[in-house]
Amino acid sequence: MKSFKIGVISDTHVPDRSPEISQDFLETIKSEKVDLLLHAGDISVPQVLSLLESIAPVKAVIGNRDFLLLGKIPMVLQFEVFGVKFGLMHGHMNFFIYWFDKFQYILRGYDRERYTSRLSKATPDANVIIFGHTHHAENFWQNDILYFNPGSITYGDTLTRQRTWGLIEVYENGQVSGKIISCG
Known about the structure:
Blueprint: E1 3-9, H1 23-32, E2 36-39, H2 46-53, E3 58-60, E4 76-81, E5 84-89, H3 95-108, H4 113-122, E6 128-130, E7 138-142, E8 145-149, E9 164-171, E10 176-182
Parallel strand pairs: 1-2, 2-3, 5-6, 6-8
Antiparallel strand pairs: 1-9, 4-5, 7-8, 9-10
């Protein structure tokens, strides 16, 4: 059965938190022969997108640290693959929610429910919702929606610092699978 492979990254933060995307990661993503690369925001500089476009076509959304990309890429992007509807966003939503989440994180730590409720409202028709922002990798189904956060390939998880990215495969019959991959 034919499939469509999507590499998913987020929160590269080049060069503000990492000087570059590692060559090891670039070689790994090339070897996967993905049909599309998604970047869920906090790209930081446009050169990151140019580098990724040398591997595969790229779709990207704005993150809270993407000042140089304002007006050049959207905050929310919706598209379809084999009839499966995708919603791509960073997850910070707006200035108020960004600071509210910071406060909540200090008080209670990470809570994915703070994200799932509002992400589904931003893309109500999506079967797959991809987001970033938290640096915390997620790959779970809830109410027939796949919520997928690849984590960060450069900065790592906010607690463990494990660097991760994701791979989503969509089959022509509409089935979807996702996996989180460690960068080592």
